[in-house]
Write a structure and sequence with these properties.
The protein is α+β, with helices and mostly antiparallel strands. The protein has one domain: Alpha-Beta Complex (tt1808, chain A), CATH 3.90.1570. Helix content is 16%, strand content 34%. It is built from four helices and 15 strands. The strands form five sheets. Strands 5-8-10-11-12-13 form a six-stranded mixed sheet, with helices on both faces. It has a three-stranded mixed sheet with strand order 7-6-9, with no helix packed on it. The chain has a two-stranded antiparallel ribbon with strand order 1-2. β1 and β2 form a beta hairpin. The radius of gyration is 25 Å and the shape is globular.
Length: 227
């Protein structure tokens, strides 16, 4: 799908040929303007509870996140919070947001990471509307069966292309966190952490994250009585 543009002026005049009793005569016809929605207008028109992104010229949508996804997002934001507000002896110096609307190209290349962070020296003041046109320093995507391929195959290359320096991928189903840093435009894995690990990963080395605390408890398995 290519991004269409709104056309606010007539495209051209058209000379029509009409034949009547008195012979052939010409009549000038003014074509009416044609207006088409841009992809971003379609994104803005999505119903409440549906998230839209424009990736490589395509509009992608997804519904509200699952409970495991929402828990990871909420708790992880709290755990890296000391980098935002400096509470509890944290270093501060960052802005941390959940589901920000990041415009790599305004209204054309639009991503909504699950979490993102900006160093305040690069973005002293966050935008006052929903669009952020400053490239994040860190992003985190929480994978689900319906979004994992998009996050890995579409969004990670875009993050690298536009110069995001750090990226985390968290898979609640596998209970795993993958951490990456950008090196000469290529993602380099700096750590892959399983369920019980205490995670210390760039760019937030001053905090230790207990992965086990991010997951919902497992449901007990019902054991069928034997014979």
């Amino acid at each position: 799908m290519k991004n269409s543009q709104s056309v606010g002026t007539p495209r051209a005049d058209f000379v029509g040929i009409c034949q009547g009793r008195k012979g052939i005569r010409k009549r000038r016809i003014m074509l009416q303007p044609i207006t088409q929605s841009t992809l971003y207008e379609s994104l803005e028109a999505l119903p409440e509870g549906v998230t839209g992104e424009i990736l490589n010229g395509q509009l992608h949508t997804q519904p509200r996140p699952s409970f495991p996804h929402g828990r990871v997002s909420f708790l992880l934001a709290a755990k890296v919070g000391p980098y935002d507000d400096g509470i509890g002896g944290g270093p501060g110096g960052w802005w941390i947001f959940t589901e920000p609307e990041v415009h790599f190209v305004r209204n054309v290349e639009v991503v909504v990471p699950d979490l993102a962070g900006w160093r305040r020296e690069r973005m002293p003041y966050p935008p006052e509307d929903q669009r952020c046109e400053v490239v994040p320093d860190w992003v985190c995507e929480i994978l689900s069966p319906s979004t994992a391929s998009k996050d890995r195959e579409l969004k990670m290359p875009l993050y690298a292309h536009y110069g995001v320096q750090y990226a985390w991928l968290i898979d609640p189903a596998k209970r795993m966190l993958e951490a990456y840093r950008l090196d000469a435009g290529v993602w380099v894995e700096v750590g892959r952490f399983a369920t019980v690990d205490q995670v210390v990963a760039p760019p937030f080395e001053a905090v230790s994250i207990d992965l086990e605390s991010l997951w919902l408890p497992r449901r007990p398995r019902l054991v069928e009585p034997s014979g």
